[in-house]
Amino acid sequence: MGNSAHARAEGPVDFIAEQNSEEFKSLRKSHRNFVFPVAIGFLVWYFAYVLLAAYAHDLMSIKVWGNINVGLIFGMLQFVSTFGITTWYVMYANRKLDPQAAAIRQRLEKQIDSDAKSKEEV
User: Fold this and answer.
1) CA distance linking residue 76 with residue 98, whole number of Å
2) What is the Cα–Cα distance from 85 to 32, expressed in whole angstroms?
3) DSSP per-residue codes, 59-106
4) pLDDT tens, 26-66?
5) Residue 9 belongs to what H/E stretch?
6) What does residue 9 show for φ and ψ, rounded to 5 degrees?
7) Lowest-pLDDT range of 38-47, 66-75, 79-88, 110-119
8) Contact present, 77 and 26 (Cβ < 8 Å)
9) Which residues neighbour 12 within 8 Å (Cβ) at sequence distance 6 or greater?
């Protein structure tokens, strides 16, 4: 009972084997190749903004137009970059991740259906 998670599951799908399949590894690699660099880039951008706000008062207080200064523009760009990254990820997922996931899902659904049919015949 202690290692039951590593044993083959009762039923048509061996989830451990699926996790170790080349298809799933490719999907996971595609996801990580996008998410990690973008997340690191955004965190660098975010912490640069915080550090500039904390330590570069002269730079951040430069007036650009009326009462709008560099700090306010950088702050608004945080929101813009967040929405931009979200849009970029959705487009990437639709183009690259979803087709891979759909192929895996279809294969597993066929496997489940064939197992259910074989049990009905018995």
Assistant:
1) 31
2) 15
3) HHT-EEETTEEHHHHHHHHHHHHHHHHHHHHHHHIIIIIHHHHHHHHH
4) 999 999 999 999 999 999 999 999 999 999 999 999 999 99
5) none
6) -70, 150
7) 110-119
8) no
9) 111, 112, 114, 115, 116
